C-alpha cells in the first residue's frame, strides 16, 4: 500500500489561447497559465458581464466566451468529454462528429467543439504490432461538447460516461466506428468524468451590416436599415 501517490497529471492550460467573441470584447481575464478545471471569461468594453466561460479541461481550453454588443448568442448547457487512445492518425473532425452523434444517438447539431490531437509515438505490444502491421502509433486525445438544456444534460452525462466501454451499446457503437475508420485503434480511455457546464454559448451570431442592404426601384432613396442589424 502506497498512500499519497500521483494518480493523474494534467498540464496547465495557456490562458492566451482563449479567444473572445463579440464586437464588445477587449480581451479576457484569463491568466497566462490556468489550472485544471479553472475558468475565465471575455472582458467587455462596455463593462457588461460576458456570456459563457472558458474552461481548462485535460490541458486544453474549451468552450466560448463573448461580449456580443450588437451580435447575439444562444445560451444553454454543455456536456464535455475528453478521451484518449492510440492510433496511426486522427479521424477528421467531421468523421469524429458523426461517430459521437451515432454513438450517443443524438443529432449532429448537438455535437460541437470536436477535436483530435496527436501526441507522442507509442510502441505497440508485440501482438498489437503484428495485427497493426507497424511497431508504433500515436497517442491521441480527442473530445467534444454536447449542446442541450439542463434536463438533456442530465440524460447525456451517464451516456457520455459509457463512450470508452465497448461492453455497453453506447461504447460499442463508438469503439466499433472508430476501429472501422482507422487501421489500428488501441483501447479507449476517459481522461475525466463527463463535465456539465450550464449557462454556456451554444451559438454565436454576428450582426449584419445594414449598409449592405441595396434597395431596388427607381423611387428608392435608400433604406431604414440600422448600421448593425441583430440576428
If you had to describe this structure to a student in words, what would you say it looks like?
- It is a single chain.
- The protein has 231 residues and is an alpha+beta fold.
- Helix content is 19%, strand content 34%.
- It contains four helices and 14 strands.
- The strands form five sheets. Strands 8, 9, 10, 11 and 12 form a five-stranded antiparallel β-sheet that branches. Strands 4-6-7 form a three-stranded antiparallel β-sheet, with no helix packed on it. A two-stranded antiparallel ribbon has the order 1-3.
- Strand 6 (54-57) and strand 7 (60-62) form a beta hairpin.
- The longest helix has 13 residues, at 169-181.
- The chain starts with 12 loop residues before the first strand and ends with a strand.
- The mean pLDDT is 92.
Helices and strands, with pairings:
Blueprint: E1 13-14, E2 25-28, E3 33-34, E4 39-40, E5 42-44, E6 54-57, E7 60-62, E8 72-87, H1 93-104, E9 111-123, H2 126-132, E10 136-148, H3 150-160, H4 169-181, E11 189-190, E12 195-205, E13 208-209, E14 228-229
Antiparallel strand pairs: 1-3, 2-5, 4-6, 6-7, 8-10, 8-11, 8-12, 9-10, 13-14
Helix pairs in contact: 1-4
Could you name the key traits of this structure?
single chain, 231 residues, alpha+beta, five-stranded antiparallel sheet, three-stranded antiparallel sheet, 34% strand, elongated
Amino acid at each position: 500500500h502506497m498512500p499519497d501517490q500521483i494518480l493523474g497529471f494534467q498540464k496547465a492550460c495557456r490562458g492566451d489561447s482563449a479567444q473572445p467573441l463579440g464586437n464588445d470584447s477587449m480581451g479576457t481575464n484569463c491568466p497566462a497559465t490556468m489550472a485544471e478545471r479553472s475558468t475565465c471569461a471575455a472582458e467587455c468594453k462596455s463593462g457588461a458581464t460576458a456570456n459563457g466561460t472558458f474552461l481548462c479541461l485535460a490541458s486544453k481550453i474549451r468552450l466560448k466566451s463573448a461580449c456580443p454588443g450588437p451580435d447575439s448568442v444562444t445560451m444553454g448547457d454543455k456536456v464535455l468529454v475528453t478521451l484518449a487512445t492510440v492510433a496511426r492518425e486522427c479521424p477528421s473532425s467531421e468523421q469524429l462528429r458523426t461517430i459521437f452523434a451515432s454513438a450517443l444517438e443524438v443529432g449532429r447539431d448537438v455535437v460541437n467543439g470536436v477535436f483530435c490531437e496527436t501526441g507522442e509515438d507509442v510502441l505497440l505490444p508485440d501482438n498489437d504490432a503484428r495485427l497493426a502491421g507497424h511497431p508504433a502509433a500515436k497517442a491521441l486525445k480527442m473530445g467534444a461538447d454536447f449542446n442541450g438544456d439542463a434536463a438533456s444534460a442530465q440524460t447525456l452525462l451517464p451516456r457520455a460516461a459509457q463512450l470508452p466501454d465497448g461492453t455497453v451499446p453506447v461504447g460499442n457503437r463508438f469503439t466499433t466506428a472508430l476501429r472501422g475508420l482507422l487501421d489500428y485503434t488501441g483501447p479507449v480511455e476517459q481522461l475525466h468524468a463527463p463535465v456539465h457546464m450550464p449557462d454556456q454559448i451554444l451559438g454565436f451570431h454576428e450582426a449584419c451590416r445594414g449598409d449592405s442592404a441595396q434597395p431596388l426601384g427607381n423611387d428608392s432613396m435608400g433604406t431604414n436599415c440600422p448600421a448593425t442589424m441583430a440576428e
